[in-house]
Write a structure and sequence with these properties.
The complex is a heterodimer of chains A (about 110) and B (about 120). With about 110 residues, chain A is mostly beta strands. Chain A contains no helices and twelve strands. Chain A is globular and about 40 Å long. In chain B, strands 2, 4, 5, 6, 9, 10 and 11 form a seven-stranded mixed β-sheet that branches. In chain B, strands 1-3-8-7 form a four-stranded antiparallel β-sheet, with no helix packed on it. The radius of gyration of chain B is 13 Å and the shape is globular. The chains are: A mainly beta (about 110), B mainly beta (about 120). Chains A and B meet through strand 5, strand 6, strand 10 and strand 11 of A and strand 5 and strand 10 of B.
Chain lengths: ~110, ~120
């Protein structure tokens, strides 16, 4: 079964600095999707960025970018120029291309210091 | 915010009771997925509905069941509640083609269920 591991329960970053959140996953499939979701306190979970496994190019969305290493089964999220509004729980998620089961990691709580 | 709404916001039930949670999809979406998020953990996939049919299920017992209606809104029903069912229940809607994995999921704010 596919598993997603986030080894950093908590991370902290200074405002305007850069932080990288780690995620590894285990799968025997070749076709899948990877996601980073943000869940602010008491607010809805929102999609930050997604990556298709068949694409070699790393996805980028404004200040958010990923480092996708398919062979290493690693999918880290880099947040540049961190803002106070980036403070939230961040979840890494995996979904097979062949079914609808989305697997989430345990999350990383990001604190942004002013 | 997404266009996905859930009701109620909070709910307290007693062990052994039954509960129904509701989800209204974002306009134009035909697929709804339900997740259970225990405190301090990531969401766990319960099941997905596509065009009123169950279209994938996670590792949850049959006492977790669901419905999707013609307007694509959805219900999650849990029978014989257990203490471990206490969690945040999230629904997420998406636009899927032919029952496939679908596009990005848009999450609702969740229903906090407490079982005593």
């Amino acid at each position: 079964a596919q598993t997603v591991t986030q080894s950093q329960p908590e991370m902290s970053v200074q405002e305007a600095e850069t932080v990288t959140l780690s995620c590894t996953y285990d799968t025997s499939e070749s076709d899948y999707y990877l996601f980073w979701y943000k869940q602010p306190p008491s607010r809805q979970m929102i999609l930050v960025i997604r990556q298709e496994a068949y694409k070699q190019q790393n996805a980028t969305e404004n200040r958010f970018s990923v480092n996708f290493q398919k062979a290493a089964k690693s999918f880290s999220l880099k947040i540049s120029d961190s803002q106070l509004g980036d403070a939230a729980m961040y979840f890494c998620a995996y979904r097979s291309a062949s079914n609808n089961d989305m697997r989430f990691g345990a999350g990383t709580r990001l604190t942004v210091k002013p | 915010e997404t266009g996905v709404t859930q009701s109620p916001t909070h709910l307290i039930k007693t062990r052994g009771q039954q509960v129904t949670l509701r989800c209204s999809s974002q306009s134009g979406h035909n697929t709804v997925s339900w997740y259970q998020q225990a405190l301090g953990q990531g969401p766990q996939f319960i099941f997905q509905y596509y065009r009123e049919e169950e279209n994938g299920r996670g590792n949850f017992p049959p006492r977790f069941s669901g419905l999707q209606f013609p307007n694509y809104s959805s219900e999650l029903n849990v029978n014989a509640l257990e203490l471990d069912d206490s969690a945040l229940y999230l629904c997420a809607s998406s636009l899927a083609l032919a029952g496939g994995p679908g596009h990005e999921q848009y999450f609702g704010p969740g229903t906090r269920l407490t079982v005593t």
